Automatic annotation (TrEMBL):
Its EC number is 1.1.1.336. One of its GO terms (biological process) is polysaccharide biosynthetic process. Belongs to the UDP-glucose/GDP-mannose dehydrogenase family. Transmembrane segments: none annotated. It holds the Pfam family UDPG_MGDP_dh. This is UDP-N-acetyl-D-mannosamine dehydrogenase.
Amino acid sequence: MDTKIDTENDRIGIVGLGYVGLPLSLAFADAGYDVIGVDIDRERIEQLHDGCSYVSDVSDDRLQQHLDSTFEPTTEYEALSDVVGVCICVPTPLRKTGNPDISYVAEATEELAGVLPDGCTVVLESTVYPGATEDVVAQTFTKNGSTVGEDVFIAFSPERIDPGNEEYAPADIPKVLGGVTAACSDRAEALYAPVFEKIVPVDSSTEAELVKLIENTFRSVNIALSNEIARAAHEFDANIWRTIDAAATKPFGFMPFYPGPGLGGHCIPIDPQYLSWKANKRGVDMRLIGLADRINRNMPTYVMRRMEILLDEEGIPMPEADVLVVGVAYKANVSDTRESPALDVIGCLEDRGASVCYHDPYVRQLDTEERTYESVRLTSELLAEQDCVVILTDHSTIDFEAIVDYAPLIFDTRNALDGLTNENTDTVYRL
Ligand SMILES: NC(=O)c1ccc[n+]([C@@H]2O[C@H](COP(=O)([O-])OP(=O)(O)OC[C@H]3O[C@@H](n4cnc5c(N)ncnc54)[C@H](O)[C@@H]3O)[C@@H](O)[C@H]2O)c1
């Protein structure tokens, strides 16, 4: 079978230009491919044409360099009529019911089946439940008259990027890949080999799907364990971060996970639900996933309760309190607020009647169920006026020293103030 790839002349398509698809497009462009990026969001495509990146890991300069040569963003699927391969990077959220919403993948695949040339390789990168590459992507092409493994080559490859982590570029992260047939695996591997340092082949697309779900379920369950132990450690008057760091000195059998105000982002709170939903359909009850989810989702309420107790000790009832939330992105050094625990913490504080404002250097505006907030400037006056400052995200650019210097009461859910000592540190309380 001809799996020859010529990156100098071959064009490739990336469908969905978000946190995953945009960096992936540039990784393929770096390897020499001409990249057509397709997104249905007109505003995003216009922004990209203007050289403005909305993904913090992609600089405007880098984007512009590729726009001048090898990267073409468009809303038109027809632009994919002569590509050798396509990667699908569209969202896979949960429905209101908590069940997987695979409709974006289904819609993108329908479009692709109508425009791709014969012999094309299609790799799904969106996180899905086990079996979805076969059930949704392969089925759509089959329904359109193609034979998978002959006219079209279909595989799954989990996206494993860690937004905000400058240590690992997408191309440096080993790329797990599994085809619907052996021929599909060969084609997908040939397509990806020029881009990634290391390909990790697995036996099927379903195995590759499961790899991603294990990784993120592992994180969700271990973070839940740390959150639960943090609550116990507080009752024992023990510093949970020092305890975990000391435990991590054991050279085997322990990996540190840290507590926080809850889970966020488009992956860790969502992906385990994809696994448990599908397993449940096969008669397997994944109780640990459900329990971890409940523990993690309960953290924002716990944070609010701890703040309420601290404020009570100062004689300030929550409905009269001015509270500054520091950091609303779901994790450090990114602008992403999807599923951010800050939304729930702010919601809890609003429900209890507190006056809330927030500061986040990455997030200019935030919509909660109640209202739209704008990030405030972190000044000594603003800090001194607060009854309580709660740290929810430890962005590296935030002036934590100023917070310790001027805020009268601080609740730190990220251990961001560790090591900062001055005469005010007795006003700092940790999760
Ligand atoms: N964000 C992460 O850190 C991360 C990491 C690993 C895996 N993933 C997975 O990758 C997938 C994409 O996540 P993301 O964070 O990049 O999402 P995103 O919302 O940032 O980007 C998705 C893009 O797809 C576009 N889109 C939606 N439907 C489309 C269609 N039919 N045709 C073309 N474009 C369409 C949207 O307009 C959007 O720009 C999800 O399955 C997610 O679980 C995300």
